[in-house]
């Protein structure tokens, strides 16, 4: 998947040319964690009336070096990313019949997961699609070699991952705006929890060691 125009960082009087640098960076991360690629552009007004979008020149925005930071991470992986469909993130691809199979797979009637799945199953198809789209998880993987999740505007204090039990991994916390990488776990496998700082713009990269 290639998105040629995910809008532009700038200050034009048009919606397509006036998103913030932070939103542009978030869109690149969301695209990467969907197994895709997108293109950067910039549309700041200037006295000479020339937009970088049309003529090139010097970039003024806050997003280019942060997009370059993401590119470095992606190029360090052993292969291309593809969507990582797990848990709730996979519900949007499921039919009511498949959700019913999940309900019969061991959930106890009355617990939260059962009630949530049963409610989603009863929705009209368009309502179900809209609801699940709002709960999208931005997760990607490179086989069993690397896993990447971007949290966007979520402000979670922790997250959980169920990794292959027969391999060992390193888990890093990434601040996509400050461009920092902090190792949280070394030599782990199976079910792990990663502490998050409770602010937006975070990602977790898990790579095989």
What does this entry look like structurally?
Helix 1 packs parallel to helix 3 and helix 4 runs antiparallel to helix 5. Strand 9 and strand 10 form a beta hairpin. This protein folds into three domains: 74 residues, no CATH class; 77 residues, Immunoglobulin-like (Sandwich); 48 residues, no CATH class. The chain is built from six helices and twelve strands. The chain has a six-stranded antiparallel β-sheet, with helices on one face. Strands 1-3 form a two-stranded parallel sheet. The mean pLDDT is 86. 27% of the residues lie in helices and 25% in strands. It is globular.
Descriptors for this entry?
single chain; 209 residues; alpha+beta; Immunoglobulin-like; 3 domains; six-stranded antiparallel β-sheet; two-stranded parallel ribbon; 12 strands
């Amino acid at each position: 998947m290639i998105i040629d125009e995910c809008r532009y960082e700038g200050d034009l009087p048009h919606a397509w040319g006036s998103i913030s640098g932070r939103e542009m960076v978030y869109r690149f991360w969301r695209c990467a964690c969907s197994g895709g690629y997108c293109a950067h552009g910039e549309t700041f007004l200037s006295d000479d009336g020339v937009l970088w979008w049309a003529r090139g020149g010097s970039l003024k925005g806050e997003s280019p070096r942060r997009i370059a930071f993401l590119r470095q991470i992606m190029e360090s992986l052993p292969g291309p990313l593809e969507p990582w469909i797990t848990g709730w993130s996979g519900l949007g691809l499921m039919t009511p019949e498949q959700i019913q199979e999940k309900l019969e797979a061991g959930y106890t009637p009355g617990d939260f997961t059962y009630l949530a799945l049963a409610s989603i199953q009863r929705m009209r198809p368009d309502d179900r699609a809209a609801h699940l789209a709002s709960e999208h998880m931005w997760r990607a993987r490179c086989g069993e070699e690397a896993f990447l999740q971007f949290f966007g505007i979520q402000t979670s204090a922790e997250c959980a991952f169920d990794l292959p039990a027969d391999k060992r991994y390193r888990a890093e916390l990434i601040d996509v705006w400050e461009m920092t990488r902090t190792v949280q776990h070394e030599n782990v496998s199976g079910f792990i929890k990663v502490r998050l700082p409770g602010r937006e713009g975070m990602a977790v990269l898990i790579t095989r060691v």
